Amino acid sequence: MSAPHYCFRCGAALVSRTLEGRRREVCPACGWVHYAQLKVGAAAQIVVEGCLLLSLRAAAPFAGTWNLPAGYVETDEDPARAAEREALEETGLRVRAVSLEAAIYFDDDPRGNGLLLVYACEVLGGSLHPNAESAALRFFAPEDIPPNLTGAGHRRAILRWQRRARRGAFRPRPGEESPSPDG
Prior knowledge:
- By secondary structure, the protein is mostly beta strands.
- The chain has two domains: 1-36, Single Sheet (Ubiquitin Ligase Nedd4, Chain: W), CATH 2.20.70; 39-166, Nucleoside Triphosphate Pyrophosphohydrolase (Alpha-Beta Complex), CATH 3.90.79.
- It is built from two helices and ten strands, in the order E-E-E-E-E-E-E-H-E-E-E-H.
- The chain has helices at residues 79-91, 154-166, and strands spanning 15-19, 22-26, 33-34, 39-48, 51-57, 66-67, 70-72, 93-106, 114-126, 134-140.
- Strands 4, 5, 6, 7, 8, 9 and 10 form a seven-stranded mixed beta sheet that branches. Strands 1-2-3 form a three-stranded antiparallel beta sheet, with no helix packed on it.
- The radius of gyration is 19 Å and the shape is elongated.
- Mean pLDDT is 90; it is low at 171-183.
């Protein structure tokens, strides 16, 4: 994980030291210690007619791999709202986060370690359209999930959904149909 290069208190350059049995960035002038924190991401799990919406990443990191519509949670943002915002920005679909499906720790993202919060979302409207982040958007049946999945918790979240979908955990009850992605 990246650390600040200068002390937030006095502005001196930080140095790396072992404290409490771990490497920490420390200010040699005033003793301030930087305790790095996990990044928090929020993902939208959008399922229509038994198929999961995935986005083909257009940019680094993980360009050319499939992931859930997702992004980092801003400091003044509820994670469920972040999942809804990211779904709209990356797919063109307006969604509502219905339930927290998973919280997945990841340590394979070059931007830093973190926690991916995955929300089951229902489609409220909009229409699919690729953009600068999403080279392609596609709904995948459980048996058709592509092998080239993004890291940062996405692979685990997608494979978890796939296992549960194959067991029938996400099938609508009689009389309940998923809305179409076109609203």
